[in-house]
Design a protein that fits this description.
By secondary structure, the chain is mainly α. The protein is built from 19 helices and two strands. β1 (483-486) and β2 form a beta hairpin.
Length: 496
Amino acid sequence: MSSSALTPGAAPAVEGAAVRGGRPGIALAIIATVQLMVLLDASVVTIALPKIQSDLGFSATDLAWVMNAYTLTFGGLLLLGGRSGDILGHRRIFFWGVIIFTIASLLGGLATSGGLLLAARALQGVGAALAAPGSLALIATSYEDGPARNRAISVFSAVAGSGLVLGLILGGVLTSLSWRWVLFINVPIGVIVAIVTPRFVLEPRRHPGKFDLTGALSSTIGMSALVYGFIRASAAGWSDVQTIVSFVAAVVLLAVFLLTETRVSQPIMPLRLFAQRNRAASYALTLVLPATMFGVFFFLTQFLQEVLGFGPVAAGVAFLPLALTQMAAAGAAPALFPKVGAKAVMVTGTLLITAGVIWLTRLTEDSGFASGVLGPMLLFGIGVGLTFMPMNMIILSGLPEEDSGAASGLLQAMLQVGGSLGLAILVAVFGHAIRDEAAKPPVGATPDDQAAHVLSHGISTAFYGGLGFTLLAALIAVLAVHKVRLATGGKPVSAL
């Protein structure tokens, strides 16, 4: 291999368009692997948290930061990562994001204190924010607009959509060895990806310009403050001083961000991305649906282990039906577009998700896996697969090349911020429900029965909040999305 092949920005020429060809299937596998890795890390530590707490001495409150340190930096820096790819080259930023993520994973696995682990998790978030935003832009470079690109996006959506679920499964298996392996597993994968990326992933055309530093700082700090405010509120209450200060700072900074984006010549988030109705609706869905998705994974993990008595491995494997149905539905979605249209597929998906959440509101301490969990998982998996694939397709379709990084970064930011905010809201609902239920124990109940009852009641109540999010998603799909069909040439067109 030549030295130029090892340099992420070596070819093609900076100002020239990338030439499609080579082996796009290998490029897709590389891109999807990285997307899976960075999304998986948002959930892979969930089942390992009790062992991490025991080994590194975290308090029950501080333990949440093992997850939040990653999601805050990931979600907060995504827009900056997307814009960096537009200016410096998506493959180059993708490459260095993988390098940073891999090093951070190694450091996290070697951490000997809670502070070192949190620093490593935050650094992982930085790497993920650089690697993830350019994913769709790199796919667009490898595949021409049409059936081939739609199939590639289908594969990408299936892998990305299953990342959180597979994280739970993998986390259970690896935790049985050591919690450190949930971080170490990224190291060999990251090394291999870093070696093969320059050879097989094409570099899209760069668009030299200026960084919107005001927009980058205000969006990053503003989104982080907003997420922190909800996280703080779930633990310390809505009247807590830090909670109030966080929300005020978020409102001010995000207002500055939006004002900045209307005035600068090269914004970090071009507001024209929302000018096309279907794309704007797809972004709204990307914000709303993860609010429930993160809650389903978080609460069902507790229900399986604390109420049904599943061990870590069994709890992780229990999510396999959800992952398999999600991947199958995402793979089948493109074949449905010419027959019924993308809108019908999206509406069906959101309604199936809603039906699954309605079922979950019926959970009690007497519910079994087959009667109370498996059915909702199957509905949820099919619904997510049918919804997210056309959402990704619509966001990418007809996009100006110079906006591809910003569009992809915004999609990832919506996913992370929506999930983090939604989970914080559902946890607040859960906390209120369990406090109320614990104050009125049933007569004659054993402590274990009472604990299972309180937990189940809190979880089912939280899912009522999740139901509100999914109903909103269904309304957006029905009312805001225009009909989208595949034309004879295979390109998605909007039928008004």
